[in-house]
Amino acid sequence: MGIMFQDITTLLLDPKAFKDTIDLFVERYKGKDISVVAGVEARGFIFGPPVALALGAKFVPMRKPNKLPGEVISEEYSLEYGTDKMEMHVGAVQAGERAVIMDDLIATGGTLCAAIKLLERVGVHVVECACVIELPELKGRDRLGERALFVLVKAV
Q1: Is the peptide bond before 54 cis (omega within 30 degrees of 0)?
Q2: Distance CA 47, CA 112 (A)
Q3: Active-site residue flag, 121
Q4: pLDDT by residue (tens digit) across 19-55?
Q5: Sign of the CA dihedral 102, 66, 56, 54?
């Protein structure tokens, strides 16, 4: 069987569909006092910044190791095929801020869990995780436990 990849390229090639997608996220989080939109590398960098701008929030990149200059904090997480780390700038967020974490899809939930742990470690309240696509058969939602997860499309 192997790994089946879901791709957002066709969405990005359609300006109306891309704008509608961003608008759906903005509508969901408008008025919820979100001060941080954290984007998971790399496709969270596509959806996060326009949502952050529309909400008047800052965008915080959550990156793979050794990609961010300066001092970082990191969180190791497990993948289907090993482990990886996610990093965030020290001082990018402040205790008490309210955040949404964005990525293009949720599969096993490992990267979103690492992002949640990084933000919560410094006192940020993670309001919700937001993804365009969910792959339900990989049970990433279960790994998030009681965490709120918003998705636009569930793949079958």
Answers
A1: no
A2: 15
A3: no
A4: 999 999 999 999 999 999 999 999 999 999 999 999 9
A5: negative
